[in-house]
Amino acid sequence: MSDLQGNGPELPYAAGALKLRIPFVHYRIEYQDFIQGAILSCVPLGITAAMVKVLGIPIEVAVLMVCINNFLYLLHTSFGDPSVSGWITAGIPLYISYLMGFDAGPERIQALIALQVLVGGIFLILGATGITRWVIKHFPISMRSGILLGAGFASLMRVFNPAQPFMGKMPIAFIVAALGSFFILFSAKALRFRAKSNLFAWVAGFGIAPGFVLGYVCGLITGEISPPTGVFDRFLIAMPMGDMISSFSAIGLGMPSASQWVAGISLAVVAYVLAFGDVLVLEAMIEDCNNTRKDEKIVFEVSRNHLITAFRNIFQGICVPFLPLCGPQWTGGQALVVNRYKFSTPEQEPSYWGGATSIFWGMSLAMVFHPLVQIILPAKLIGFGLTLLIQGYLCIYLAFAMCTTNVQRGIAGVMGAALVSANYVKLWDSPFWSGPTMALIVGAILYFLLEYDGAAKEKETV
Cβ(82)–Cβ(29) under 8 Å? Predict the structure, then answer.
């Protein structure tokens, strides 16, 4: 078990080993994180276009699938896992390329079912046996830092890439939103203002929301963002549950063929390798929380995270096949929750769990109400871009803080560069040789060549 502990007590829970925590009983709803989540409700809806195009799913069914997936995120924080969970995002292009090799219609849906259940099986086996716990315990600091650097670089490269829409389509709105959010979240001056002004401390408690609103207003003024339309077309989103079950699940279509199960194994392994990096990022962020806030002990158990992620993938694979798959952490959302918790006093935010759960209560409930989604949707690129920026900033900050020697920093830098650039999938005609896989191989070689000293370690244990 990987326990990252502060000095204070762990938040109480029910149901023994399940560590069940219920809103208003074990923690309060943090309305600031709830509002942040509601604003970001437009971000997960971005995958619906790919689901419609690749899987042939009607848009109403795709939106329903996203909503169900979002509510299942609450399993983590409700049952003792501090993860603000998400997709296995880095592999989405690989999943799409893989699925396009099957005939459109039921065969392609069944191929996705096989892939997602296989991913769930890997999480289940590694979580139940404790293999991943052992691997993480012995994982070198330089390689941890390299994965964090790679995750940070990948996020920031996406934001500053001129081909991406953030700076290309809405430069003024996005820059205003980014500067406002970064000032509130990370500025030393902002920390002083928080201490001096109760009003500023209250505004800063909303995280990215003030910056988002500023950017949205600027975008409407400059014409970079179109005004919302169709706000009052309906009150709740459509919920075609019967159509989803009968036409787009294993219950209605039947289980995949043996050949589909075999075909999905290698990509399922790749998906887990991608997700493994998210687990390391999550561990580092929770450790940062415990180092900063000593009043509460936040316990992160790798096995618990894996078992809940396994359940999500297996359940959704059978009942709600989900193109981005189910991952152990959403780094952007995790960064928002961690940052607000770290810079709040125990009076402002008594427990980590209130913020970590409230962000998904806000996001999930907002997605059910059609008017809220339609109001926020025009500025979805601002919300998405802000989470990428904050994710990149915090990942790089944590990566640098981990390393204690120049050799570790050098290995981390090379590994981070490999993660974002060493993509040999097309060159070597296999999904296994993706950037994260190559980064792990490069990092391991450099670690054993430059840093590892077996003789010194032997002396330490004597």
Answer: no
Our CA angle for 187, 190, 196, nearest 5°, is 155
Q: How far is CA 274 from CA 50, 216, 233, 245, in A?
A: 20, 33, 40, 29
pLDDT in tens, 16-54: 889 999 999 999 999 999 998 998 888 888 888 889 989
Q: Which of 167, 168, 143 is nearest to 440 (CA)?
A: 143
pTM: 0.83
309: Cβ contacts below 8 Å, ≥ 6 apart: 85, 120, 123, 127, 275, 326, 327, 328
Q: Give the span between the Cα atoms of 293 and 82, in whole angstroms.
A: 15
Task: Give dist(CA 304, CA 295) in Å, integer.
Answer: 23
Read off the pLDDT of residues 244-275 as tens digits, 9 standing for 90 and up: 999 999 999 999 999 999 888 888 888 888 88
Q: How far is CA 55 from CA 62, 134, 305, 327, 328, in A?
A: 10, 38, 29, 20, 24
